[in-house]
Description:
With 440 residues, the protein is mostly helical. The chain has helices at 3-25, 30-36, 41-61, 63-68, 71-90, 95-123, 129-155, 163-169, 172-181, 189-194, 198-207, 213-224, 241-256, 259-264, 266-272, 280-305, 307-331, 338-361, 370-398, 402-421, 430-436.
Amino acid sequence: MNGYLAKGSVVAALGGLLFGFDTAVIAGATEALKAQYSLTPAALGLTVSAALFGTIIGAMFGGVPGDRYGRRGSLRITAILYLISALGCAFAFDWYSFVGARFIGGLGIGASSVLGPMYIAEIAPPKLRGRLVGFFQFNIVFGILLAYFSNYEIGTMGFGDAEWRWKMGIAALPALLFFVLLFAIPESPRWLAKKGRVGEAEDVLMSSGDPNYRHDLAEIVKSVDEKHGSADESLFQRKYYLPIFLAVSIAFFNQFTGINAILYYTNFIFTRAGFTKVSADLQTVAIGATNLLFTIVAMTVIDRIGRKKLLLIGSVGMAVALAGVAAVFLSGTHQNLLVWCLVGFIAFFAFSQGAVIWVYLSEIFPTRVRAKGQSLGSFTHWIVNAGITFLFPVLAESSGGLPFVFFALMMVVQFFVVLAVFPETKGYSLEEMQRKLGIE
Ligand code: BGC
């Protein structure tokens, strides 16, 4: 792999690191915030979910600057949002300013979930694309672990009342680094071509070590079809129905695995299963580490065995593991198996949906509408995430097992939908993929 390409992917994937960090860091500050601002349970819920509201809006509109100012240019905006959010939380002067800062961070997370994978997919050669875009997910998961670790470390430093400010503010450092490094990478060649800047696009393709850069550039220019005014067409047309279906369904199933019900409520689940003294930290670390390990495993095989097979294997594995969780709850026995079912679930999630979602979303739309299509997919993922996060505690309170029966069934449905409808995308250039999907 060429250094130019590696640098571009690593820098863009930093957006994923901040995404993971910012979603998880709040867990270490909730108690202190509750005390500082005398929060009722509802106000605490709002404090935590403010970022999630931001992500929905950030994902919905992230494609717009992506098309207008470029993928790299817009990633710079997300870096600024991350920076404002970290400093805004650290220097919050009242509860409203804290919630506002979290919301701004959410905008950054949502927008970077569209722009980061898109940028990487647009510079990556077909045979490495799965692995390079998969690196974005690796960074999300690594960012989550880093937040746990950083919260723990800061907790030992004796900051007293200012501890939560440090926990939240520390993210300003990676945000600043992200912003600065974004000046050292090239713009996406496909966006450049879409804007008619063909010479610059050619330079980027050449520098990224593409041996057939002339041929590939011609393909890109043809696919953008600027002459016919299609460089900025609408997404909602019959010819895009299949990729729209694929994007919405992969996003939908990603969250209907129950991943965030499990990640956000690990403690709640263990207590509900009858554990009195929960070694919460240990379990959280075990789950986070498994997530990271199997994301790496998936990255090593995604370009060889393909996205579709990973999704199929994951559907089966997750359905079995989730049925196990449901059985523990419904029968009220074998509680000692719960942690293994959850770790098994995370392993299969990381190996399949976790590693595939951002890759697949960045591959199924032609350059002309990619930003809009990815926004739609990412937005679907965030809105379903918010719904499940909101409903899970209520449903689990009335029946510990039923939500997991539901998630297990969803994985059975996913298996058949993927088998019947999802095309394999590995190894094709983005332009060949467009032809494969029958899009003129
Ligand atoms: C998803 C998150 C999830 C994480 C888990 C991400 O791709 O967007 O919702 O918590 O993966 O690894």
